[in-house]
Give the backbone structure.
Amino acid sequence: MPYPFGMVLAAAFAAFGLVVPPPPAMSAGAAPRGMAWIPGGEFTMGGDDALARPDERPLHRVSVDGFWMDVTEVTNAQFAAFVKATGYRTVAERPVDWEELKKQVPPGTPRPPDSQLQPGALVFAPPAEPVDLSRYDRWWTWTTGACWRHPRGPGSSIDGNDDDPVVHVAFEDAEAYARWAGKRLPTESEWEFAARGGRDRAVNVWGNEPIDPKRANTWQGRFPDRNTADDGFALAAPVRSFPSNGYGLFDMAGNVWEWCSDRYRPDAYAMRVESAGAGGVTMNPRGPSTPVDPRNPHATDSRVVRGGSFLCNDSYCASYRPAARMSQTPDTGMQHLGFRCVKDGSPPAAPAAPTGPSAR
């Protein structure tokens, strides 16, 4: 699962927004390239299975309007095209701003040495033996020079991995890409509705059958020191490596975590139910206006991430489930954190009726 950035390294980044004009609007009814139409509707949001966590409760009814969604996570090739067109520089490629960092760490925390304020991100570094699972700093390492171009740090490269999901993207990086593409990040409710693929209240995106190595890219073996990689991948897999869900979306379970637009609160669902009333349906929720994140209590903002990653294992993190939710500070860059986009619009045009002698 992802971990609070300030608690692992205590490193936050200065804001660096970039607004670029989106491509021209699409004609009504046209299918955007690489996107699937999600018809919208009402569903039961949340989880109550044996692996569900408290912030997935209470179950409640939500309705979302139809929208388009990227069929895959945004890939290295797609993100490279964005960078080439705009000159954008990600958060992980910028020096750390100590004044921003101080807002996320306990008062009185000493300023880190300059060597720890250089551009970088968090890289997964499996220990050689079993460790205390509450000590996530035992398998995450702040790595100077790690970024989307160098996902495992200096010396690593994305060459030959165009179809891998882009990682080490902070929330503002994902938003900048989405604006450029004429899209946006999904709300948490849109993401869960799409992930379910029409299987309301199912435990997994494929139904209620347990996970196995043929269904999603997750961790097999003993986390975090021994990965048997029975699914064929020790780290992120190229998109489309596993079966799609009922809406034709790939990797809605595992592979890399995905940013959502909602701010995080563990009691967001309870607040929603209280507002809607018993048996009420919440229409197109956009998340709470004020974040609360017990895992990162000093952060001024916290956003929802969904879908789990190649590090998910039932012994520690079963977040490949569609109901599972986690939080991250918006400046976070990690080796298993990416995104996909959505787009408002009209449903696809119906095929034209057949005409001529062959019509029946």
